[in-house]
Design goal:
Heat Shock Protein 90; globular; alpha+beta; single chain; 23% strand; 162 residues
Length: 162
C-alpha cells in the first residue's frame, strides 16, 4: 500500500447549494475511473454532498465563500478532503452528539445536528474532521474487490460436455 497518491484532483466551487452537485459528479467520475462498485460510488457521492452541504449551511452564514474539494487518488483508495475557510466549530462537542437516532414517537426527539457526520462515518471507511481556521473533512474509501472473483475459476477451466 503506497502512501504517495497516483494523482491529485482539486476542484474549487462557490459555497452555494447549486454547486454541491458538481462536487458529487466529480467524485463519481473519479471513483468510476478507479473501479469502485456502483454502491461505493453512491456512498461516496452522498458523503461528499453531506460534507459540502455542511460547509454551505454553516461555514459562511450566507456570505460569499468557497469550498475546496481535493481527491487524492491512491492505488487502493480514494482520499477526499472538503475544506472551507469559514466559521469553525467545536468538533468534539458535535461528535459527542453524533450517532444513530433512537426511535421516538415525536419529531422533537430527532437530533437537530450531527446526523450528517454520522452518515459520513457510516458511508466511508475513515473520516477525520478538524475545526481550526475553517473546517477540513477528510474521508477515505478503500476499493473492495469482490471476494467471489478471487475464487472463481476462469471459464476455460470448466469441463465441457462436448
Amino acid at each position: 500500500m503506497s502512501n504517495q497518491p497516483i494523482d491529485l484532483v482539486n476542484l474549487t466551487i462557490p459555497a452555494k447549494p447549486d454547486y454541491v452537485g458538481i462536487a458529487r459528479l466529480a467524485v463519481s467520475g473519479i471513483a468510476n475511473r478507479m473501479g469502485f462498485s456502483y454502491d461505493d460510488i453512491e456512498d461516496l457521492k452522498l458523503a461528499v454532498a453531506e460534507a459540502c452541504t455542511n460547509a454551505v449551511d454553516h461555514a459562511y452564514c450566507g456570505g460569499d465563500g468557497e469550498i475546496v474539494l481535493s481527491c487524492n487518488i491512491f492505488e487502493n483508495r480514494l482520499e477526499i478532503k472538503v475544506v472551507d475557510h469559514g466559521h469553525s466549530f467545536d468538533v468534539s462537542e458535535v461528535e459527542s452528539r453524533t450517532g444513530p437516532i433512537s426511535i421516538e414517537p415525536t419529531m422533537n426527539a430527532l437530533r437537530e445536528r450531527g446526523l450528517g457526520l454520522y452518515l459520513m462515518r457510516t458511508l466511508m471507511d475513515q473520516v477525520d474532521i478538524k475545526g481550526d481556521n475553517g473546517v477540513i473533512v477528510t474521508m477515505t474509501k478503500f476499493i473492495r474487490k469482490d471476494v467471489v472473483e478471487s475464487h472463481v475459476e476462469s471459464p476455460t477451466s470448466y469441463p465441457t460436455n462436448r
